[in-house]
Every structure is written in structure tokens, then in C-alpha cells.
Amino acid sequence: MKYKVIFCGTPPIAVEILKGLESLEVEIVGVISQPDRMVGRKKEITYPPVKQYALEKGYKVLQPQKVGEAFEEIKSLEADFMITCAFGQFIPQKVLDLFKNSINVHASLLPKYRGGSPIHYAIMNGEKETGISLMKMIKKMDAGEVYAQESLEILNTDDNGSLFEKMGVLGKNMIQKYLMDIFENKLVGVEQDETKVTFAYNLPNEQEKIDWQLPSENIHNFIRALSPKPIAFSLLGEERIKIKKSELVDLEQLAHFNSSDFENGQIVLVDKKGMLVKTVDGFLRIVELQRSGKKMSHANTFNISKTNEEEILKFI
């Protein structure tokens, strides 16, 4: 017997989960994704990656502004289960009640980092590992029983782009490994420890700004957590500069600089390695940045132009 499944997801990581479903003895009767968005300066209508893949595979695609608005159409598909991953919408209880069970593929080791940005927060907070949780969906956000968890290492070189890719592979493998046992009640869910809950809410635009009053490692983690998008930024005067990549530096190699001579956020120098910026506990090297109206480039191309030698160039 093939179980009928509806899948909900939006970004590339969710495409990997959908591919995992395809390898199982299930019938994918519908795919629900976020509505199309206008992207870029030209405001071109762009399909979400899950929708694009689903259309290529010939699946029925729904894109309600709110899932509840498609209740009757979802009900008509007569699915046994709903599977979600990085969908980006709240699913009301009346929709969940249509299924024998609804399983979410969540990109953290629950109960840590409930919410929409678990990968970003794991990097931002300097975590050394993260993972995937297969959990039962309930009305409360990411609070259901956990059926399975597997972890992976966060490397110092990882940004959110590389970690999303790794998590997609892990999630796909876990779907193939555990999902049928969940469907057939061979895996028992474990309640989450509410005393250990942390949250990873979506970052508003104003929180993408770098705080140069923090230690170098915190700033470095913040930059890689937001790379390759949405990308952290800082202000140089009135110019908004996006900063995509940074490197921690060995302070012993910079012993000729007295950090007390510089202000936090001040550009100390630009050389072939990049741009050296003062932080609260030393220096951080900016490697890739994007000036207003320009393309992303290596920071060694940044032209320091001063009106006089005493002028201080400083990020704020």
C-alpha cells in the first residue's frame, strides 16, 4: 500500500527533502509552496525552488497566501500524511487534523532553536554542531514529539549556504531512513524538554547590521551566519556596505599595531589580504564586500580615499 502524502516547503533545502520522499513507497498527491515573489532590482516574478522542482516533476502545486485558505482543496487530495520542511507558514490545526500525522523536518537539534532561522542562529552563536530533527507537528511552534535526530559538525569555514547544503543532504537521508517507520508507528516520539528550549526567530532587516562593539569572533560568526544571503552590512558614513566574508587574524602577527590607537569599527589598512578593521578585542579582516551600486568584490580592491591624513574611516 502506498501512503498518500502532501509536501510543504519553499527553499532549496526543502527540495532535497522532497527528493527523499520520491525514493519511498509513497504517492505525492500535492506540493504546497509559498507564493511567487518579486526578486531583484527588476522586480521579476520568481518561483520558489520547491515549486520549480514540483512543476518539473508534474506534481500538483498549491500556493495559498495562507494555508487555511486552501483547506477544501487540501482536503480533496485525501492525503494520509503531511510532510513539511522550511515552509515558512503557520499551518492551522484544522489542516493538521486532516491527516493521520504531520511530520516536520526541522534544521536543529530540538529543543534548541525552535523557529524559522535555526541554521543562522547556530552559526551566529558559535555552535560546533547542529542537526536535523524529525518531529510531530502540533499547534505550538516546533514543540511536538521528536521521532529521530542526527547531528553534524559545523566547521569554522561554514556559512549558512554551505550548512544549508549539508543539512539538506542529512535531512534527505533521514527521511529515507526513518519516515516509513514513523508512518507505521514503529518509532515512538519523545517529548521535548521545555526547560532547554531556545528560539531562532527570523531576523528583521535592521538586525543584519554589524555591531563593531563586539569581539572579533562574534562579528565573524555573524557575518558567516548571514552569508551568502541576506548578507550582513555596515555603514561607512552614509554608504551601506555589504560584508560577505571575513577572517579571524592572529594578533601576534599584528603586534606592530597598538589596538588602543584605533577606534572600534575603524579601517586600519587595506592590503592584498583584505581590509583590517578594529574590534573591541583586536582586529578582523574583511575579505569580500559590496559597495553601493557595485558588484561583490575582494576587499583588497577597496580604495581608501581621505580628504586629509587625520581623517578616520570608520564603520558604524
UniProtKB/TrEMBL annotation:
One of its GO terms (molecular function) is methionyl-tRNA formyltransferase activity. Belongs to the Fmt family. (6S)-5,6,7,8-tetrahydrofolate binds at S108, L109, L110, P111. PROSITE patterns: GART. Attaches a formyl group to the free amino group of methionyl-tRNA(fMet). The formyl group appears to play a dual role in the initiator identity of N-formylmethionyl-tRNA by promoting its recognition by IF2 and preventing the misappropriation of this tRNA by the elongation apparatus. It comes from Spiroplasma chinense. One of its GO terms (cellular component) is cytosol. Keywords: Protein biosynthesis, Transferase. This is Methionyl-tRNA formyltransferase. It catalyses: L-methionyl-tRNA(fMet) + (6R)-10-formyltetrahydrofolate = N-formyl-L-methionyl-tRNA(fMet) + (6S)-5,6,7,8-tetrahydrofolate + H(+).
